[in-house]
Fold this sequence. Notes:
Two copies of one chain form a homodimer.
Chain A: H1 6-22, H2 28-35, H3 40-52, E1 56-58, E2 66-68, E3 75-78, E4 93-97, E5 110-113, E6 129-133, E7 143-148, E8 151-160, E9 165-168, E10 177-179, E11 186-198
Parallel strand pairs in A: 3-5
Antiparallel strand pairs in A: 1-2, 3-4, 5-6, 6-11, 7-8, 7-11, 8-9, 9-10
Helix pairs in contact in A: 2-3
The first copy, chain A, binds a DNA duplex through residues 5, 7-8, 27-29, 37-42, 44-46, 49, 60-65.
Amino acid sequence: MNDLTTRQSEIFEFIKKEIEFNGYPPTRSEIAKVFGFKSPNAAEDHLKALKKKGVLNIVSGASRGISIVKEDLGIPVIGLVSAGGPILAQENIEKRIPSTQNILSHGVDFYLRVKGDSMIEAGILENDLIAVNKKAQIKKGSIVIARINDEVTVKTLKSISSDLVVLQPENSNYSNIEVNPKKENLSFEGTCVGLLRDFC
Amino acid sequence: MNDLTTRQSEIFEFIKKEIEFNGYPPTRSEIAKVFGFKSPNAAEDHLKALKKKGVLNIVSGASRGISIVKEDLGIPVIGLVSAGGPILAQENIEKRIPSTQNILSHGVDFYLRVKGDSMIEAGILENDLIAVNKKAQIKKGSIVIARINDEVTVKTLKSISSDLVVLQPENSNYSNIEVNPKKENLSFEGTCVGLLRDFC
DNA sequence: TTAAATACTGTATATAATTACAGTTATGAA
DNA sequence: TTCATAACTGTAATTATATACAGTATTTAA
Lengths: 200, 200
């Protein structure tokens, strides 16, 4: 229900930019003028389409009564991960942090609250929030969020091959975790791309 | 030039809330209705006053042509601190991070980029950004940003009295710093209230 | 004390803006 | 083929909106 046509995207982007730049939305005539429409009704038609597709709200009768539908709930913060189910399951979401501006440079899919002290030598302390990107390439040396037999853990990926994956805690009191992905259930939830610590 | 009267503040706050809530600014009539004015001209007068005081932009002729003047440049990120001068001097500002939403719970006056490894055992690594609050009470045990004879340093405040201040690095390779505030120039730039790390 | 600013009422009007209705043309799916 | 959707032109009417002008009363700064 949210695949806009090329033209609709152009109109939608223009409206967003206008709101950003002027502080208020454009009128039908203003849209028409910018796109070279000879009738404000062309803009009206586009607005109706964008409303129908759920990306705009239109308040009838109000001048400039256009607003952007924001489905952006914020970036979820994952506390304890319940066994089974996906990490992003509703019951795992502790709260959400507005994603209004990307303070961290990579895309952040979710924040994970750190349990335990296995990563303190990498400067990752208990209760820190690590910013996780789900799609960033999993590679040697990066800090990964791994799931081993339904247990979620944050470790440095030391080596990876088809029958041996070595996960290294950054705490000399702990030993490396060696997993054979053919025998055990191993998956990667993502890569650590940042960290937030909130002193309170 | 920016001291609004009580009434003007009410109007100004209302306009901000309307923009936040509806996505577009109110009309004169809408303002008048909410405040019980019997004439839209009362709203017009207020808008003119708010424009004159520099907190609003009004685009003449445009319906709802009201926008908030934003002086908010974002929270400064301080890189290297040049000797002398205040920490927030222009030349020290590396960039600014939009303060659209307070991710961290305390007020953040600026971010300071960490140099060196003196705090690694507190999970503060080189190049991390520590969030600094200038006004939070300086107390024993908190991580403070101190200035000793024009040198800025981040340490844990171990003890404080009129003739001895002990600053403790969180790295066993370093020794405590002892300062006599009567003999040396010591000031506190603020308290660490958070941390941002951006893996890149 | 005197002018300027604040905070309104009341009226009126030009124009800004929404939006319906009637069409045209092109494209892709049933 | 035929119908729905997309992307417009063109016209026009209702209503939404900005905003000027003329007042009044109160408060505040010079």
